[in-house]
Each structure stands twice: as structure tokens, then as C-alpha cells.
Amino acid sequence: MRAAVCAVVMTVGLAAQPADAQADRATFWKSVQATCNATAAKAPSERGRRIAQIAVDEFTRFGGHRIDADGRIFHFGLTEAEHEEDDGGGRPARLDRLGWWQVMKYWLALFGDDTNHKLEVRGYSDASTSSDDAQLAALLRTTAARLVSLAEQASDPAEREMLREAALRAAVVDTSWSAAFVSYVVKQSGVAEDGFRFANAHSAYIYDAFATSVAEVANQVDDRVYRACPITTTRPRPGDVICNQREPALAGAGEEVARERIRADLAAGTTGFARAIRRTHCEVVAHVDAQARKLYTIGGNVNQAVAARKLNLRRDLKFSAAQKGHCGGLGHWTMPQGVSAQAASPAAAQASQAAEAASPTPKCSLNDKKWFVLLQVR
Q1: Residues 172, 189, 292, 62, Cα dihedral to 10°
Q2: Lesser CB count within 10 Å: N end or C end of the chain?
């Protein structure tokens, strides 16, 4: 409730701003849109095509999930913690068919020799020994580097290697890697450090792209590869990046509100955890099927894999806000609750069921996200 109230207040606040502030906002985005449209009207650049191809190659190499235009996984592929499926269980495995090894490749491209110190491993006190499923367990944290150093104490070489790999697999599972994947793809395309903020947080290069758009409106020049464009009014091209936001305080806000919050942060010089938009996810535009009016994107850490997603475009080939699926809603979900949930608190179970029945139809499409900005290859 608090998040919804905050979002409404922020939306009303933007609408209630003085006329000169609203005029400034309209003028700014009109200028940005004109630049975005001029670029979108051109054929994809060589750089954009290269970024898109690297994303496709990496998806093919990983063998991850495929998500259709209704937001359903129709092919479930390799995941971050899995080995290639092998019923025999005895033959050697190629390293590129180990999910965790592939993800470590993205991290190494980002952090190099310091990678193990950057990756977190989490545990819960007594979870490996307790048999009480109702026990509360304190969160434990350490780094992959610490666990790998402990593995070095094993005298048997095979056990030592398995302990190292177990530590790295745990780190891959416990540390979000979607931004590392995008950074890897862009870096492999040949983009230099001054052209893209290679980071383990999408917000780092989202804010940079907004800063580039601000600079362009002021007729200033920078070397960044991407600018920020409104997502539903700009035609995507291969190599572009689309992003959604998951900020609880903006749960009820539209894409315009989210973009204005970033612009306000830049104007105020806000940095780090004080920024309004930090919980984000971005994916690379891999292919645009103009005839079918579909957009294919590739992202990392999507259901624990490198996944390809098929999205809807409108007739004008711009991003469609309608990315909803057809699951039928709660009225079609008739499986009863588990016995343990009902036994723990029958009243709470009834209250939960009543709240679900009264709530709007839930999102049932993996594509139905709060997409709010397109980062366009300049």
C-alpha cells in the first residue's frame, strides 16, 4: 500500500509542477525524441549489428530458455548451476556446457583477477544440520575468494577442484549477473571503457545513457555508445538495449515518471544508493522481425539462464506496451493450498485466499514488465 501511495503522489507531483517545469520537460523530451527518431530511421550501424550478433552467439552457446510473445517459456534450456544433461553421468563434459562456467566468463571479463573477491556467497546458520523447517536462520555472507582459499587446504587434488567449483557455482547462483552479461556482450563488440560503463548494475549505464541525452540537448559531445530514448515512441534496432525497472516506490508509475526521476537525479548530482532507479534489468535487442512485428531480445540471469525473449511491436514497429499473456487469472487456478499452510494458520490461509480473489488479474507473462527506456546505439 505504501509503495502504491508513493507512486500516486509522485505521479500527481509531476503533473502539478509549475507550468515552466512542465514546459521544460516537454521541450527536453521533444528534442530527445527527434534525435532518437533520426537515428532509428537509419539502417542498424555496424557496431549495433556486432553487439546483436555477439548476444545471439552467446545465447546459442549457453543454450538457454526461449520465451514466446505470450511470455511463456516454450523451451527450457541450461541454467546457471546446471551441467549439460547427461543420463549416463560418466563421460567428460565440455566446459562451455557448464552453466556456472559460462557465467564466470562474464564476470572475468568485467572484474578480471579480482572476480572472486567481487562475488558473494550466502548461507543460513544451521541450515545444513537442522531438521526443524520452522527454525529462523540468520543470513551468512562471504566471498567466493574466501571459500576458494579454504578449498586450497584439501590435500586430494580432485576434492580440491570440486570444492573450488562448488564455491564458484554457489557464487554464480547467489550474485545477480544480468548486468555482467550485458557488459560482456558490449565489451566483446570492441567498445572501449570511455564508451560504456562496464558494471555489475544496469543502473550505471542507464544513467550514463540519460546523461548523454542531456548532453546532446545542450549541444555537448561525449563518447558514450548509448543515448536514452522513450521506449514506446522509438523504433528499436539491433544492438539497442531495453530496460525495465522494479522499484517498489514506482510500482504504480508510468514510464514517463521513471525517466523523469532519473533526469532529476542527474540534475541534482545524486549518486549511489540515493538514486531513485536502482532495481533494473536490461536486455540486448538481437533481431527485429518487421514483417511479423516482433522484437527479439537476449538477457542474462533470466530465470537463471541466458534467455531469448520475443516481444510485441505495434504496426509502426515501435515497442508495444501490451506484453500481456493469457493465463486465465486466479479464477482458473483451483488447486487447493498445502496442508502445512492451512494447519499453520487456517484464518491466515482464508484471508490470503480472499485477498487473492479480490486482487486484479495477476501478471502471467514473463514479458509483462515495467519497460521504461530504450538505450539506442548512437
Answers
A1: -30
A2: N
